[in-house]
Amino acid sequence: MKRNKLALTLAGLMLAPASAVFAQSTAPAQTSNPPPQDQAKQLQTITVTGSAIPRIDVETPSPVTVITATQISRSGLTTLSDVVRSISADNSGSIPNAFANGFAAGSSGVALRGLTVNSTLVLVDGHRLASYPVADDGERSFVDLNSIPLAAVERIEVLKDGASSLYGADAIAGVVNIIMRPSFKGVMGTVDLGTSQHGGGFTRKATLLAGGGDLDKDRYNAYMSVQYQKDNSIRTSQRGFPFNTGDLSSLGGPGLGGPAARNGGPNGAIRPNTPGSLWQPLMPCTTGPQITDDTGSYCRFDGVNKFGTLQPAMEQGGVSGRFTVKLNDTTKAYMDASFMEAKTWAPGGPRPIQTSTPNNTNNITLPVGNPSNPFAVPARISYNFGDIPSGFNYNNHAARIIGDVSGQVADWNYEAALVLNHSWLNTTQYGFISYTALLDAVAKGSYNFANPGSNSSAVRSALAPGYSKTSTSDMDTLDLSASRTLWDMAGGPMGIALGAQFRHEAQNDPTLNPNFEFQGLGNAQTKGSREVSGAYVEFDMPLLQQLEVDASGRFDHYTDAGNNFSPKVGFKYKPFDWVALRGTYSKGFRAPAFAENGSSSTQGFVTYTPPPAFQALHNGSPYVTIPYALSEFTTANKNIKPEKSKSFTFGVVFQPTSWLNASFDYYNIKKSNLIVQADTAAALANYYAGLPQPPGVTVTPDLPDPDHPNAQPRPSELIGSYLNAQQLKTTGMDVDLQAHFDFNNNIHYITELTGTQIFQWSLTLADGTKQSYVGTQGPYNLSSGAGTPRSRGSWANTLEYGPLTVTGTLYYTSGYREIAADVGVNGLFDGDCLTTTPAGTNFPASCKVGAFYDFDLTGSYMINDNFTVTASVMNLFDRKAPFDPANYAGAGANYNPTWSQAGVVGRFYNLGVKVKF
Hints:
Helix content: under 10%
Distance between the termini: 28 Å
Radius of gyration: 29 Å
Membrane topology: Multi-pass membrane protein
Number of domains: 2
Largest sheet: 22 strands, antiparallel, barrel
Mean pLDDT: 88
Domain TonB-dependent receptor plug: 59-175
Main location: membrane
CATH superfamily of the largest domain: TonB-dependent receptor, beta-barrel domain
CATH topology of the largest domain: Maltoporin, Chain A
Structural class: mainly beta
Domain TonB-dependent receptor-like beta-barrel: 356-876
CATH class of the largest domain: Mainly Beta
Number of helices: 13
Oligomer: single chain
Organism: Dyella koreensis
Shape: globular
């Protein structure tokens, strides 16, 4: 990553964007001498992300970080998702591809400043994209990074500042602007193969980029890019302890538990439905030794080991192309089209007969006469349908087409662009048990629990018929912009930019569980559409040679969310040629997503363990000590208001020499009117204390504990609606350092360090309660429960020696406390860990999850002008992921895939070849 310094030699490649704009970066360079007149004239066509006015000095008042195609290649990262999510400012709410059991499985999203994926605006060439057809947690709309082709990317620009004054909604935390090549001549292809040292994850990738035509000579250029990548899955059974098991008893933690967790697969547990009876195996144990405790005997079965997936199998591919014509000396037009498809396979474990939602089957019994009931009385049964495979298949498609015209009329530079985006996601679930079919099978005895191998495929299909749906998302935009200089000021010409945007947005995500037919499956559905119109103006005022002030504002009208005005002002002051002070103040907003104000509802699950005091009331029975799925059901609110933000930044940029560039930027963001679900922490606390719930909130109790039927039941479902009820504040510091050195014998060395330190990340609830999350695993109810690490950073070092290039990159994410304020009486309310031992003590005892760092080594050797060999060893030192038993995104495998996926993949080898003509 480099600070946003433009090389003059690349300036002519820029095309003015439509609604807000982008910059180009290579080696850092600040000059105290004015550029030649012809060069200055060329630089006037350059615009920078976060500003709509062409400028010569591209260091704007806002901090912008650039990742070039060269840096992407040197990193060894092979997907756009991995590249963007490696940004140090990406934090709480980030969505990794490995989170294959979430609402938005099959996707990947970036969350700058930890403000979740719906507060970071992702653009391509300055234009908006359609959101992923399914919202994260059934609530947050975001752009899927897997839907953007990487093969034709020229650079990625990250504006780490509020930008609603130009871009409108969703740019509260910043903007990720992915810029495609404006033109290409020749043929370039790559082929790469990779595999993990520990097994699984074999990957193959190929890209092709071909184009021809010279805009100046031929008055046209056309190119096409094609890419394909397929990654095999990594199973939990292919890794070592503790990432391959759900049994942590050897560490003093939870074991495989009672009948609901131990029977698994084909081994069930059964007991007569009479007082004092004990559980006993439904059939002889074949999956492990028999376990006996005071409630009975069970067959040991580790479902995490047998069925868990650490990395889902994925297949991605697509094609994109651009045709550009030069109509005259001042006018260009281009058409750009792309199609991407991403498939994800996410198999799961066998579905249990006991679930709490949508119908409670925890006390289901086999009647007398059922072939699987050997008793003369009805019998309770605990069972997992091990003979019926379960899971999800996702197939997402993203189609996009742009028509763009830019030119000059009189003293105005103008651009007009029509952008059409359409995404559709095919989702198929299989293996989930139909409630009505289950009751019928139990009553009629059609399914043999004692000998599942005798069940016919027709019987299994009747119990788990499967279901498919197609979800869609649309974003159609007309962007208009114009800019010019007005008059000379003391520091140079004053600039103005005007723009307008008209959008049509729509989303239709039908439920995957119609009529609540399937047990243990969430029931989210979203439908909505709206029209959006906006207009902005920006002034750039060089008041002095050393002082520049930039002011902008945008007005937006939403047919469903009303009006909003977002202003912004920034300054840059250069007391010396080698140092610059900069700062901004802005207001932003996020319009409610269709999941929050449309015809929508969401049912999701979090892994939950009741607090120790509640466990004591049940004498530590498995009913309360084994983590279970707590349902959260939320309905849309048509009266919900947009989220608002106020933010400011202040930074300093140093370049005391030509080989060193450094910047330090402080940020402070306050969000109000936060759109949130019902306060689960307060709801659970009220439930345990026997207090009434606030209006609109309901806690549904589970069926009684079979071993302690008179004790208070555990909660099974929380029901509420979205509301504007909280405020959020986060502060922190970004650091960017870059230095480059030239030595004898044609040796060139580059070192680049980027890092983000969060000082504060806290919520203020409606009642004034303040919850701090920085350095903890909260917000736990957010997305994958990944937490808010205090520090993230990377340090890349590149050595170039003739045809040889070697890069080593160190990535670091700090550890965190395994607590979360939003999980009620756990977390900060009493200092307890999110996971506990069977005795109710903290697990792990330190209540901490360690930091994770790994080192990637990549290299390339140019055999000649046409052939280059590439190789990399990712996670060179084979660092293991920190132990995290509370995270629920990692297939129950006791690690956090958001921050430490490389730690379960392990040492990974890649070998490739690049051909260019």
